[in-house]
């Protein structure tokens, strides 16, 4: 990689060119890591405007000089390409796992089209869990203008792989969650807080006493003061042979290859919304995740500090966190036809969080 200034910067210091080169390489490295972390492996180019421009430029060079054929790209064009990229990211989910034989493709084309539009809301009714016995230190408030609180985010706000995703790459609204979000804790300490489900009286312990199973997701935020936001998802029992049960009882490699996060910032500054985006991300491949399997729970400690990209986005978010409304959906990625359609473990909306509301937890020592 090199830079040719073409006569620009007469009298420049030699270190200037090296500085520019390092900045470009850092940007390329960051982009490469970011794309490696997203759930978009093998996807086709998503900025057709840019592709067409590049093709047109290559053709014009055959008949004209470069300085006659090249024109600066307008800001409107760049913004348009960016919007196209975001829109296509939302619906594309190309993966190498799905290689369907031509005979199966033809058989699928002959199926009734009504099967493709299977509603994610058509679920069998299940007994409701009594949520009154669960509590966390972060308040629960369903009002739209509430502050420093959480509420359950509607599953239909998120799009997941449909029953026929392996054939046509379609996505559908996620619908009902597999588990109930019963409590959220907001902790702080001078050190990183691991295995918070061992804390006496926490929602996971209460659920275990009632014979319920919990998935505890501990999002660890590094800094001079360490923060942890802990989500407690509860269900009556794991369905034997289900994708969720195989995830809970699987090894760490399987878990890392399947745990997916779909983020969204419905309210916040433009730069934060663009930085966070809404593209599904395989958490275990993006950042370090530590899995702790208890008798009646699985805790997932998500170390945000293990990724330079995540740290960069976090640094942008943490300073304006009180102005943000953030949605997060957690699910296990489906990679085969018998695992589809995808279902959310659960989804949460955190509104206008205050750092000052975090408390220091009293964790029991590991046995």
Automatic annotation (TrEMBL):
Region (Disordered): 54-77
InterPro entries with a match to the protein in the record: EDR2-like, EDR2_C
Pfam families: EDR2_C
Protein ENHANCED DISEASE RESISTANCE 2 C-terminal domain sequence ranges: 150-354
Record-linked PANTHER family: ENHANCED DISEASE RESISTANCE-RELATED, PROTEIN ENHANCED DISEASE RESISTANCE 2-LIKE
Name of the molecule in the record: Protein ENHANCED DISEASE RESISTANCE 2 C-terminal domain-containing protein
Lineage of source species: Eukaryota, Viridiplantae, Streptophyta, Embryophyta, Tracheophyta
């Amino acid at each position: 990689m090199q830079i040719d200034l073409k006569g620009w910067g007469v009298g420049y210091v030699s270190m200037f060119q090296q500085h520019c080169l390092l900045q470009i390489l850092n940007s390329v490295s960051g982009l490469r890591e970011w794309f490696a972390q997203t759930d978009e492996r093998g996807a086709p180019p998503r900025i057709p405007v840019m592709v067409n421009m590049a093709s047109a430029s290559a053709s014009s060079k055959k008949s004209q000089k470069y300085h006659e054929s090249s024109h600066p790209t307008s800001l409107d064009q760049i913004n348009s390409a960016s919007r196209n990229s975001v829109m296509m990211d939302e619906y594309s989910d190309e993966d190498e796992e799905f290689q369907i034989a031509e005979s199966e493709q033809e058989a699928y084309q002959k199926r009734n089209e009504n099967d493709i539009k299977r509603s994610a809301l058509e679920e069998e009714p299940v007994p409701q869990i009594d949520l009154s016995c669960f509590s966390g230190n972060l308040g629960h408030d369903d009002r739209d203008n509430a502050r420093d609180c959480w509420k359950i985010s509607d599953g239909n706000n998120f799009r997941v792989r449909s029953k026929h995703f392996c054939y046509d790459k379609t996505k559908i609204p996620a619908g009902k969650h597999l588990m109930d979000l019963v409590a959220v804790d907001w902790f702080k300490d001078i050190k990183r807080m691991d295995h918070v489900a061992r804390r006496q009286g926490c929602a996971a312990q209460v659920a275990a006493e009632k014979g319920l199973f919990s998935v505890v997701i501990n999002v660890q935020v590094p800094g001079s003061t360490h923060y942890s936001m802990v989500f407690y998802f509860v269900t009556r029992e794991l369905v034997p042979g289900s994708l969720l049960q195989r995830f809970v009882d699987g090894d760490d490699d399987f878990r890392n290859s399947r745990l997916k996060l779909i983020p969204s910032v419905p309210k916040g500054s433009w730069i934060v919304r663009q930085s966070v985006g809404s593209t599904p991300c395989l958490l275990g491949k993006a950042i370090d995740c530590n899995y702790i399997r208890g008798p009646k729970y699985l805790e997932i400690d998500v170390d945000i500090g293990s990724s330079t990209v995540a740290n960069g986005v976090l640094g942008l978010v943490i300073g304006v966190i009180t102005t943000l409304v953030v949605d997060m959906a957690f699910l296990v990625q489906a990679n085969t036809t018998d695992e589809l359609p995808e279902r959310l473990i659960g989804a949460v909306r955190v509104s206008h969080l205050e750092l000052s509301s975090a408390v220091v937890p009293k964790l029991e020592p590991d046995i």
